[in-house]
Amino acid sequence: MISNEKHEPSNxxxxxxxxxxxxxxxxRGTSGCPWDKEQTSESLIPPMLEECYELFDAIExxxxxxxxxxxxxxxxxxxxxxxxxxxxxxFSDSELFKYTIDKYVRRHPHVFDGQKTETREELIExxxxxxxxxxxxxxxxxxxxxxSGLPALVYATAVQKRxxxxxxxxxxxxxxxxxxxxxxxxxxLAQNHAERKxxxxxxxxxxxxxxxKMEIDPEQSLRFANRKFSRRxxxxxxxxxxxxxxxxxxxxxxxxxxxxxxxxxxxxxx
Length: 270
Description:
Blueprint: H1 17-27, H2 34-38, H3 45-60, H4 64-87, H5 93-106, H6 109-112, H7 120-135, H8 152-165, H9 173-189, H10 193-213, H11 218-242, H12 252-269
Helix pairs in contact: 1-4, 3-4, 8-10, 9-10, 11-12
């Protein structure tokens, strides 16, 4: 006979980080979950990356319940990685926390050592100076250490910031704007698809330079644009449905009219 009584497993684990660690010990234990037991640090990368992006969405949408849920999922994955590292004797929890705390104390001398800083720029420069000292002898290039698996716009931003610190950078944003026009012209003059693809990449890279100079996160900015387009497109479809129209059968002129109508509605709501 199956009992209808609800089991509350969360009561078995403290509601703090140690509870997550105990939970993972159970899931990876002899009587645990087959899926959890077979996971490795590498196999967990795709779902962890997905959870990070779901957290970004929740934060950008200012949705507290979703932020809590997605933050919990990311926290679970971090605890999972720590658990596997401990299982393999790669590091202990205390070693990880000590290393992390020591590093961030060391990189905040203006907080812990009484070092005086006047501007945000000084803070950033001090951070980079300390970081370079820590990595001395470990890197052959100023670009070493940037993860190759980053989203392309994020990677381009990171590369450009590293180059900027060496003095290899545009003097003024107007020079970059001129470069955008140049890249557009070169893309138009390309002789084949391979050349057009290369020139389009150069154009995107140049646009990232503009974003960096204006202190805009291009990845986040594009996510906002994607979300805005998706919202407006869905609203166009909904309006068409309410009017008894098949959206896919409407003309481009009618679609443009719907798009402008949705934009006016957004403006009015603001």
